[in-house]
Amino acid sequence: MPLTLPGTAEALAQLADYDAIIDARSPAEFAEDHLPGAVNWPVLDDAERVRVGTLYVQHSPLAARKVGAALVARNIANHLDRWIDDKPREWRPLVYCWRGGQRSGALSTILDQIGFRTAKLAGGYKGFRAQVRDDLGQWPRQFDFRVLAGRTGSGKTRLLHALAAQGAQTLDLEGLACHRGSILGGWPSRPQPSQKRFDTQLWQALAALDATRPVYVESESRKIGALQLPVALIEHMHATARVLRVEMPDAARRALLLEDYQAITTETERLCSLLDGLIELRGRETVQRWQALARAADWPGLVDAMMGEHYDPLYLRSMDRHYAAYGQADAVLLADGTGPALAAAAAQLLA
What we know:
alpha/beta
């Protein structure tokens, strides 16, 4: 019989010891989130899972198991035909499903019977998800965060990347969230991950950090786009982090924003629709004036107006609430958002 690991903590400590981590759940479940490094061998696809679940509720558990067993057997046979021909006897897979029950049990038993050194995760993905939530509530407190704070367009993200390129520890929350954080900050080529997927990726990023070294991170609100940051992370950043005030001349900020948001200027009506989301905050007359600038393709005018009337006041109020030391923080002066300026500033911070 396959070895059943007693719990998630033991399995996570041993993940690197396995040759494969196999998720037996449906493709939709896998796409929402999965264990780090997992591959998907669904024993029921999405439609089959709905079919079996409906039989279970509307007819009987026995009827569902009869149909489910046949589907599972065929699907496992297909996975074996496709994936195991080149696997040696010493191959060690870890198999899991939603709760470590029938789906992972069926797959892991067959792999074990073939002769592979198979393990099954007790508690399944549900146990892993609980561990991630628990760790995200505890881990952030161990880190010495250095928060890059500064008005929109001041080059915080670029400076964070320059720091990483020079060997600093960084936590790129916007990169994980696939979002720049503002109402216009969605990435045109990539949607945001699910909340569960974001949590897992953040958990992985924190697990890889060395708590004895500083960690550079951008100042963020509690949400990045549609995604919620862990309360423990935000509270620890607000309460204990050293703040670094990133400053850049307004003309350079305008140039940086026009470069970063160039893609959205090709979709004027979509941009105007997004701006409608600011009517409650800024008033219809102000938003309509911004929309008129967009429809006239006056992008410098739009950026200047939104910096002065929306982003700068909003950001400075946020800093006053959450980072009392912002006004007295050490300044990081960037002439512009070009590579040489960023590299020089990063080197000075790390010197």
